[in-house]
Amino acid sequence: MEKEQKVEAERAAAAATQRWVIGVGFWVQGFRLFPWLGVNFFLKDGMGVAASSLQILQASANLPMVAKPLLGLLSDAVPIRGGRRLPYVAIGALLQAVSWLGIALWPSLTLPVLTIFLLLSNFGASICEVANDAIVAEAGKQATSSSGGQLQSFACMFGSSAGALGNLLGGIALSYFSPKAMFLFLQSFSCSSSSLLWLYLRALSNSQR
Which residue in 40, 69, 125, 173 is a FRET match for 166, CA 20 to 30 A apart? Predict the structure, then answer.
């Protein structure tokens, strides 16, 4: 009886940890909307981009989202450090951190260079979204129908609340900070989340040895 209770407690603890890892992943992805209002003002006021060119640039920057099916196949076929999902989330967050750092610190930033950095950021975001969705789907299969639905609602709640908060704080931050300061903040945020995920992966792999 005690052994069964111990096993059940370990399963509950693992499920709770997984739930919060999923929540953090979706929260980070939702909060990435924080600097995009700053991007618009930076392009319009800082670089003098016309409104028509701005719309074309934003549409082009979303092209990596088209590759989501291929990224899903890649994460299925190529595990990293024994994991098929969380390592890709960490890599995607790292790519976003590198791109926003480049936008904030690149000297004499030109429109082609900015476009490359925005493509890199959205490529990292598409990797994170594919991996996060797969984590939720796999966890839902392992759980009962009711708890699986609760997990999906939990993930959507985190992502939606972070998106709303990011948009709200982005508008407020523009009144007090420059767009590049906002880019640096998101870079630090993405880098921190990537580091936490790698630490979690190392602890998980060590516990399984």
Answer: 69
> pLDDT tens-digit profile of 159-175?
888 888 888 888 888 88
Pseudo-torsion of CA 117, 121, 35, 132, nearest 10°? 180
- For 123-179, the pLDDT digits (tens) are 988 888 888 787 777 766 666 555 556 777 777 887 888 888 888 888 888 888 888
Nearest to 134 by CA among 26, 14, 10, 20: 26
Distance from C-alpha of 168 to C-alpha of 99, rounded to nearest angstrom? 22
2, burial (CB in 10 Å: exposed 0-12, middle 13-18, buried 19+): exposed
To the question of pTM greater than 0.90 for the whole model, the response is no
Nearest to 194, CA basis, from 97, 117, 72, 69 = 97
Q: Which of 184, 61, 179, 185 is nearest to 124 (CA)?
A: 61
Contacts of 154 (CB under 8 A, 6+ apart): 19, 22, 23
CA-based nearest residue to 21, from 95, 123, 98, 90: 90
For residues 158 and 19, give the distance between their C-alpha atoms in angstroms, rounded to a whole number.
11
